[in-house]
Amino acid sequence: FQAEPSFLEGLRDKSRRTIAYFGGHRHNTDNTSTVSTFPNENWVVGGGGGFGCEPGIQQQGIVVGEIGFNDELSLYPALVDNRFCCRGHAGAWQY
Predict the structure, then answer these.
(1) What CA–CA distance (Å, rounded) separates 37 from 88?
(2) What DSSP string runs through 25-65?
(3) Is the pLDDT at 37 greater than 70, yes or no?
(4) Phi/psi at 35 (nearest 5 deg)?
(5) Per the count of CB atoms within 10 A, which of 2, 8, 14, 32 is most buried?
(6) Model's pTM, two decimal places?
(7) Which helix (H) or strand (E) covers residue 91, if one does?
């Protein structure tokens, strides 16, 4: 996206609506390793399907989105226990 700064600027524009952008694919689910689109949110979403894990801290799973009564968007991760998704697969990191 660094080659298209207007795309990132569009994701950062909260003047007309709140934007939640979801991208991937990596074997991780987080909103801290991405390029900031503040005041909006973006998430990389991936993993948890048992295909494989990289060494180190893993946060694999999905993102849950809830729309409140005041139309406010709330996003949070629902993560898979790595002991179950990172075992017994070719190339998977073992605990």
Answers:
(1) 37
(2) -SS--BSSSS---TTSEEEE----SSS---SS----EEEEE
(3) yes
(4) -70, 130
(5) 8
(6) 0.73
(7) none
